[in-house]
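Today's session is about reading a structure prediction critically. Students often jump straight to the picture, but the first step is always the sequence itself: look for stretches that repeat, for charged clusters, for runs of hydrophobic residues. Only then move on to the predicted structure, which in these notes is written as discrete structure tokens rather than atom positions. Here is the chain we will use throughout the hour.
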Amino acid sequence: MSNSFVLAAALLLAPALGAPAPAPQVTVPASFGPDSQVSASVQPSTTGYRPEYLVNGYSSATYHGPYTGTPTTIGAADGPTTLAASIPTLPPNPTATYYNTEGVPLNPMPAPYTPAGGLGTNGTLPRYMVESDFDFESIALGLYQEWIELDLFHDGLARFSDADFDAAGLGPEARSLIQFMADQETGHSTLLTNMLGERAPKQCVYDYPYTTVREWVDFMQRVTRFGESGVWGFINHLDSREVGQLLAQSIATEARQQQIFRQMSGLTSMNVWFENGWPQSWSWTHLAPYISYCPENTTRLAWQNFPTLHILNNANINRYSPNDTAQDGSETVGPRIADPSRSNITGSCENLNVTGYGCGPAIAHNKSEPLSFPGKKILFQWDAPGQAVGPNNSYVTSTTAGAPKFVGWSQQLNLTYSPLTVTSNNTGYTYQPKGFVYGNDGIINGTMAVMLTDLDLFVTPFNTSMLNPHIVALGLYQAG
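Below is the predicted structure for this chain, in token form.
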């Protein structure tokens, strides 16, 4: 295949693969947008696999629920052989020595206005295809993520009525924005499919935890968090710089989606100075429990699924007093790793029009009582390995770590540890640590990864995956 053909295949985007075909909008006073929309073509290989229905003018898959069959394949994808149990820690790259004390170019310039250096800057025609197993498995994971977002964003629009949305403070314009974000996922899934080729994963069937509009929006802010962070963690490790370029242009959109869903959830729109990057196995651990089943022969992933870390007193974002959240995990809608907060509670802030306590959809909120704070006692319970998860229940959670001793908090530019106190079998607690990135920017905030480890290993944003062999269980913490 020639470079020019691959360039055209990736950039001249095809119609959306597996995307729902929008029907004309129903003409009612609450409708929005044009009277009709251009239909998208449905991927032939999935025709009949994900039948769709139309409700409230929106399309969604006819089934969302658990897998009830028997898996025919078990475990993550594997290569011909595995060379070592883990990647060893090495000294700095001996060629990484450049330091500019002059403030001007130090080397001959290859062309006018072109400083020496950089990758992919020598005039070679770009090839927008994955270049290694690492690239393929990373982009395949990204495509699994884009597929669920395409389905998820559509599902709530079809599942809930206009009255449900209005009661949650999301009117026609907000619903139009969510529809547009769903359409964005059509482009993202097409792009990643083109960069993978014929074995790109297909869209699956999903099992969602929400029952209200608030819970749906909360779930989407969590899903887009691990979708975004999961790409920032690997994008600069890709062998294909061309793939990384296009991926960055799509994930920048995902970052905007995450902020919008936070605003719709009544959370502070931005409360960190830097976004956090996650290794692929962290993202896959969060995503897999919500995939019910996939078409036969769907490409499998090589990444690890960690046991779930349940945060029993994870703050309920729907409370005007988050510190009144129950201590037994009952204010999360279910036991899966990214399940949203229950919205049907006494003490809800949803319709409370009081500055500092209300949590209705808004551009910005300041919390008089924060969702978390340094020194807060955090209660944990964690699953044993060996649980069936993911598409067709065909993946198995695992860990290579020893007994848990520390809690790792991954946010912004830092991986911070606090000591774990084990109270009984697979339960324990810690206290939320205090620290700052720069100035008064607190390390722990937002929607973030938290984990139990057997070692307080020093890692930085570019080598966080070195911690994977030491992770006992992984969870999602709602810090702010």
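Discussion point for the tutorial: The first strand starts at residue 52 and ends at 55.
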